[in-house]
Amino acid sequence: MEDASHAIALTVAYAGGGFAGFARQEGPQTVQGRLEGALHVLLGRDVETVGAGRTDAGVHALGQVVSFEAADGEFDPASLGRSLTALAGPGIVVREVRRARRGFSARFDATAREYRYRIVQGGVAPLFLADLSWWVKKDLDLEAMREGARVLVGEHDFRSFCVAESAEGKRTVRRVGQIEIFEETQLGETCVVVRVAGNAFLHSMVRVIVGTLAEVGLGRRAPSWVGEALEARTRTAAGQTAPAQGLTLWSVTYPDEVWL
């Protein structure tokens, strides 16, 4: 017999510049707050959602996943995405609506997450990518950055690469599956893309990784310094936190068996 309820998984894209992050807060505009407000209007009830990643203020998403429980037949999934996009307001687009098994969690059922960070290097400021990238006014040594990044791949204690306060009393071991660094042309402007994929990430972990690798790319530190920072297990050992506007939550992966 079919369950009387199931979960809904929304694939959501948003331009993070207009939001105080993903997670709901009292007062400031957040992505989760706007989505839950739109769902309340559509369904006539309070809806508590779960996001795959709690992106910070200014961070964008192309493939954030948001889940919530729904009764069978409560709405038409085919039209839900269009209605939510219209009601959630500018800066948020619901790209896909999928039915998942009851109890599905966008956060806890995820097996992998991918982030991409854009850097525009050199003396010419970005125009179209200005709100989507970090402008570094000198050229970067990408091969040195790749060399430094290799030590971060695998399962490690990333305490040096997250917000110090967020790590107090918590487990900081994570597995990074891939770090790729390549150039790409977007909207006619060339940028360096740092692609980081892993099972889960600490608070600001990708931005600290990028800021650390940028120090290597600018010649301020040797590639071996990245490994030393990792081993130190203290935030002050690693580089700066790269600006929020360069980061995009690109995609989230789930096992096939969660979908209905």
Write up this protein.
With 260 residues, this protein is α+β, with helices and mostly antiparallel strands. The protein has two domains: 105 residues, Alpha-Beta Plaits (2-Layer Sandwich), CATH 3.30.70.580; 139 residues, Pseudouridine synthase I, catalytic domain, C-terminal subdomain (Alpha-Beta Plaits). The protein is built from five helices and ten strands. Strands 1, 2, 3, 4, 5, 6, 7, 8, 9 and 10 form a ten-stranded mixed β-sheet that branches. β2 and β3 form a beta hairpin. The longest helix has 13 residues.
How much is the radius of gyration in Å?
A: 19 Å
Instruction: Report the uncertain regions.
Output: none
The CATH level-2 architecture of the largest domain is identified as 2-Layer Sandwich
CATH class of the largest domain: Alpha Beta
Number of helices: 5
According to CATH, the homologous superfamily of the largest domain is Pseudouridine synthase I, catalytic domain, C-terminal subdomain
Structural class determined from secondary elements: alpha+beta
Helix fraction, binned, reads 10-25%
Keywords:
260 residues, Alpha-Beta Plaits, 2 domains, globular, 5 helices, alpha+beta
Tell me the layout of helices and strands:
Elements: E1 5-14, H1 31-43, E2 50-51, E3 60-71, H2 77-88, E4 92-100, E5 112-121, E6 134-136, H3 142-150, E7 154-157, E8 173-186, E9 189-198, H4 205-217, H5 224-232, E10 247-253
Parallel strand pairs: 3-10, 5-6
Antiparallel strand pairs: 1-3, 1-4, 2-3, 5-9, 5-10, 7-8, 8-9
Helix pairs in contact: 1-2, 3-4
